[in-house]
What does this fold into?
Amino acid sequence: MAVVNKGRAVKSSVSTSVTSPNAKASMGSVSKQDAPVVTTIENKLQEATLERAKKEFSEPTKKTGSRPTKYNPKAKYRVLVKEPTLRKGTNRYRNMQVIMEWRYIGDALRELKRLDPSPGSAMDITIAIKTKAIELLDKED
It folds into this structure.
């Protein structure tokens, strides 16, 4: 019980006794009966956290490596135009210039991947075929 003395709270000398064993646990001290339950819950929480971390960090978020293209890298092609058929100054125009310098799909793809910024891909070869800038000589195996 607190006594008010000139606007200040003063502790009284009356103490309260705790009668239930669970009351001690709620006050911050843990009894021997409650200890295994607490550690079990903590262990389960740690295991769940570890499993989630393993899933997140074991599987890469971005796939690495290159997947095979639909074109045979050893396939040869012939250039049908002198200038790229796309608008000048674009990345696709630059990519088509690279394609027109080479005669094998694999060589062109390798050089397209080296471009920076915005490396090219097999899609640029597909565009070159559709716009009749190149013609495949060796059909796919």
User: Anything to note?
Assistant: Strands lie at 2-5, 8-11, 77-79, 134-136. The mean pLDDT is 76. The CA atoms of residues 101 and 108 lie 8 Å apart. The first strand starts at residue 2 and ends at 5.
